[in-house]
Amino acid sequence: YTVPPTGVQQPAYRAPFAPHGPYGPGVPPPPPPPQFGGRPPRPPKRPKEKSALGRITFFALCLALGGAAVLAVLGLHVPPSGFFALGLAVIGTGLVVGAWRGRARWLIAIGCVFALALPISWVSERADFGSVDRPDRMAVRDMTWAPGTAEEILPEYRTTVGDATLDLSHVDFTGAGTPPPPPIRVDAEVGDVKVILPKDLDVTVELGSGAGDAMIFGREMEGPQRDHASISDNGDDGPGGPRLTLDVQSGVGNVEVTR
What we know:
This protein has helices at 53-73, 80-98, 107-126; strands at residues 143-145, 156-161, 164-167, 184-190, 193-196, 202-207, 210-211, 214-216, 219-221, 225-226, 229-233, 243-252, 255-258. The chain is of the alpha/beta class. The strands form three sheets. The protein has a six-stranded mixed beta sheet with strand order 1-3-5-13-8-9, with no helix packed on it. Strands 2-4-12-6-11 form a five-stranded mixed beta sheet, with no helix packed on it. Strand 8 and strand 9 (219-221) form a beta hairpin. It starts with 52 loop residues before the first helix and ends with a strand. The relative contact order is 0.09.
């Protein structure tokens, strides 16, 4: 009589794991678990093709500047600012074309150099840095002019950046043989303007519009934006005698006309 099994049958005895581990010789290990959610590796990017736009633009820049230099040698007046403006136009055209076709980002650095040099050269061409011998030219500094006679007065006195002072208090406009005073223009783009006149001279002041206050013969006009005004004053001796027309322009700055 055989007793039926009553529980889970225990496996037969096996030798210890060592030295071959639990799977022993001839028993393959279980397969690795499958991995889910992994992305396949991206294919390597294709190297960007080098654009010829930068070389073409640089060649056009050299050609344009060389042509301008030839014209200057042949006698055509080409100011330095003209070279920078021409170069900036060529580089700007290349960058605009590069927005659709090709790439030439390194042109931006050259364009920045030309963009900075253009206003500097333009100002230097029109400015007389520190000379009072040419008051009709723009100057970048505070300027003071004090002619001694009516013959020494110029029709125009200008500054670009800086205060302008015209002292006419010592000029005799009523002497024998003295020519009538010519119209005088005093112009300061950025800076204050001050004009000192003789006490007995009849004057008409044409004040241009600008940003700043104005004091004309004690009459005050407050900024920040003043309008054009025409003011006449006959001096201490009343009307009579020569009359001076004074045109005063100051874009940004205060204006004072006094005696």
